[in-house]
Amino acid sequence: MATSGDTERYIMEANEGELQRLANQHQVLKSAMGTLTVAPIDFSRPNLRILDSGTADGLWLRDVQATIAQPHAYVGTDIVQAFFPQPAPPGLSFHNQSITQDWPDDWQASFDYVHQRLTLAGAGQHPVKQCVSRLAGLVKPGGWVELVEADFTGDSSNGPAMQQFEAMMRNMLDKVGAGYAYATPLKSYLEDAGLVNVQEKSFDITYGAACPNAHVAKKGSAHLVTAATGLRDFTKSQVGNMDMSDQELESFPDEVRKEVESRGAHFKMLAVWAQKS
Ligand SMILES: C[S@@+](CC[C@H](N)C(=O)[O-])C[C@H]1O[C@@H](n2cnc3c(N)ncnc32)[C@H](O)[C@@H]1O
């Protein structure tokens, strides 16, 4: 009979698997974008307050901290507290906070840099625009907000397995609420929130055989195979299975692995950043 200890172990292993997938993805994004920070932050100024919303285990924060000599206050928030490192590393703090809820009053206009990557799908049925305007409210005058999100609109140069991956991703984003084109209006949301110097850049993210660095290429393949397994399970839970047969669904992660290792894959990542006047 399963005990509560078994359940805790299962949750811990599931979290470790997800954190490994996110760590692989982090290396892929860092390599393809050539930077961790797109907004023009002057990290040499003293005592900056830096927020990473949807931080998971704070890997982005820890990686930024490791490249900067000045001590700053690094704050990570997420709705899955089990992801937070225990104890928090020096200079970092972690807090339970959903992007769909009001942020603490004493955090308003208190950050020099608000960063959020690949978290807006977690808005669910909540308006994405409202989540973005809440983030804008956290930025000090002169400070920056930066959003990095996947863009599944437009034509794809990927092979058949990865085009199927993209179709399943679009379907999932539509079903959970954010909608597959959720990243396209981000620039206008930041403008409507009253921010200035609003900028946008699209990055080509390469995976597997399309990635020039062999070490990062492997991490990209591993990330996509794990993500394909999650997408397969989500699709199975949906009425109609997106017209995929049981056999197609079962073999889908393996088809993704073969195609990414032999041909590679590309995704578009949109970075949007803006300043509080
Ligand atoms: C795809 S992961 C990205 C993690 C990290 N930002 C990165 O780029 O590596 C999405 C993260 O957002 C968190 N998340 C999902 N919905 C959220 C919400 N409503 N509010 C805050 N965080 C959320 C998840 O728990 C997860 O850690």
UniProtKB/TrEMBL annotation:
Under the heading InterPro entries, the entry gives: SAM-dependent_MTases_sf
What are the protein's GO molecular function terms?
methyltransferase activity
Matching entries from Gene3D superfamilies are given as: Vaccinia Virus protein VP39
> What Pfam families does the database record attribute to this sequence?
Methyltransf_23
Please give the name of this protein. S-adenosyl-L-methionine-dependent methyltransferase
Recall the taxonomic lineage recorded for the source organism: Eukaryota, Fungi, Dikarya, Ascomycota, Pezizomycotina
